[in-house]
Design brief:
This is Lipid A biosynthesis acyltransferase. With 304 residues, the chain is of the alpha/beta class. It is built from twelve helices and nine strands.
Length: 304
């Protein structure tokens, strides 16, 4: 027999799933001005209500930006919440993108170097991004406007919401590779000339490699560097940020691998390089990064 706890868990997942679908239904029926106002209101609500989480955000920002005073930090924190709400609702509006014209109105792509190294040379490539800007929108628009890609993702606990998110990610030819199969399936894809997108600002639960990230030491995931050097494909740091006019800009910066070999030292050095590239964007546009989670919960001291 199914335990009462499992029944309540399933019921809760059903409720969240239905609310998720309802929110998507609603935001696809309002114009962009109304959508933006709704997102800002949602962001402000969470910012003011969830005080413990807000303290985590302001603490993270204060450490990363010691030169900023409390008012500046609070201003960035509030914009962080607004941007995360915009990102969520923008993902729910993805079905409104019916073709290239819709995507062109929403985003500007600057991917010439990436295309020169992959499409023109007939090679696969890795796009390493982070929880920066609208990373979900970036993947979908690349799939629609440039080439289908595979997205490395972690399965959500709510399988119903996970299936809906996967459907949205795969709307325009993309595919999803879940983290447990990422090394095997990702390597196969790259060797066949495919493009793999992975978030490179996540901690490694095994805590194998530690480095400074935004002024604090933390564990860093070596997977993207392992795949790039093992498959001998180019790597680019991919960033999708929102401009003041509401339109997104998508940029890809190549990470030099010419002097690196497939070795432990090479993998660690490439990890440092793409992490520094991600840091550069975060420092320049701090309101775009996901400061809401405790990125530094795994430190070298904790490991010891």
């Amino acid at each position: 027999m199914v335990s009462l706890q499992k029944k309540w868990r399933r019921f809760g997942q059903q409720v969240i799933y239905r609310l998720f679908l309802l929110l998507g239904f609603l935001v696809r029926r309002i114009n962009r001005y109304q959508f933006e106002r709704l997102a800002w209101a949602m962001g402000d609500f969470v910012y003011y209500v969830l005080r413990s989480r807000r303290r985590l955000v302001t603490t993270n920002l204060t450490i990363a930006f010691p030169e900023k005073d409390g008012r500046e930090v609070d201003g960035i924190a509030r914009r962080v919440y607004r941007n995360q709400a915009v990102n969520l609702l923008e993902v729910l509006r993805l079905p409104l993108i019916k073709g290239r014209e819709d995507a062109d109105e929403l985003i500007d792509l600057y991917l010439d170097d990436f295309l020169a190294k992959t499409r023109n040379e007939g090679k696969g490539g890795i796009l390493v991004s982070g929880h920066f800007g609208n990373w979900e929108l970036a993947g979908v628009c690349i799939g629609l406007l440039v080439t289908p890609i595979a997205v490395v993702a972690k399965k959500l606990r709510n399988r119903l919401v996970n299936s809906e998110i996967e459907r949205l990610r795969c709307l325009y030819g993309n595919s999803v590779i879940y983290k447990k199969q990422a090394l095997r399936d990702g390597l196969k894809l790259l060797r066949e000339g495919g493009v793999l997108t992975v978030l490179g600002d996540q901690s490694d639960p095994k805590g194998g490699f530690f480095m400074d990230f935004l002024e604090r030491e933390t564990s860093v995931y070596l997977g993207p560097a392992f795949l790039a050097l093992r498959a001998n494909v180019p790597m680019f740091a991919l960033m999708c940020r929102r401009q003041e006019n509401g339109k997104y800009v998508l940029e890809a910066e190549e990470i030099d691998t010419s002097d690196l070999s497939f070795s432990r030292d090479g993998i660690e050095e490439l990890t440092r390089r793409y992490t520094r590239a991600l840091e550069k964007y975060i420092y320049r546009y701090p309101e775009e990064w996901f400061w809401v989670h405790n990125r530094w919960k795994r430190s070298y001291i904790d490991k010891k």
